[in-house]
Predict the structure.
Amino acid sequence: MGLTVQRDWYAGETIWVVGSGASLDYIDASFFDDKLCVVVNRVGITKPLREFFTVTHYHRDAMLVANARPDLPVVVPEADLGAGGPEAADRQPEEPNVYRFPTGPQRFSSFDAQKHWPSDPDALVVGPTSLHMTMHFAHWLGAASIVLVGADCGTLGSRSNFDGYSVGDNPFEVWGRTLPGVADQLRKRGTAVHSLNPFVNLQCEGVPYRSPLANIN
């Protein structure tokens, strides 16, 4: 169908925001075929999904995805804001399907959505993981509802990421503490935020879940 990077272009739509958590192992990629998806970092090309927006703090990931799927848009901050800062090998992505957005500075664990929400309506919030900016971009597109998938903020069956996805730094406590603040800001601005549980109920069908805030099974 082609994807358009324009504010409120998808007003009233349900947008699926897809992270890299291990709960993605319990959802077939075909589930997303008829859904409007905004994904984090390399999720779209790793799962892989049919059509998606990519949002990432990392310019290197942006270039990788933009080259793998030149038919799809990739959204990045103007400066590389990933954990650890820009690497020596990074460069500014020049691919024509990369869209740069203004943001505030990267504050990592001191991020507070209420204090640090951008006043510019065309700027995106930046938090300690790309998921914060991904959620805000879905709202910027006009989402009436956001459904989070794979935003686990913990380990599921002892794994932090779905099969085939490279494991990186996982400060679960920081993510679990700061992501609800982003959801709260989006709800105040008219976008409902929910999360998909791929199991029958919150008991996860016996699959153990561990996080700084909760232990199940």
About this structure: The radius of gyration is 16 Å.
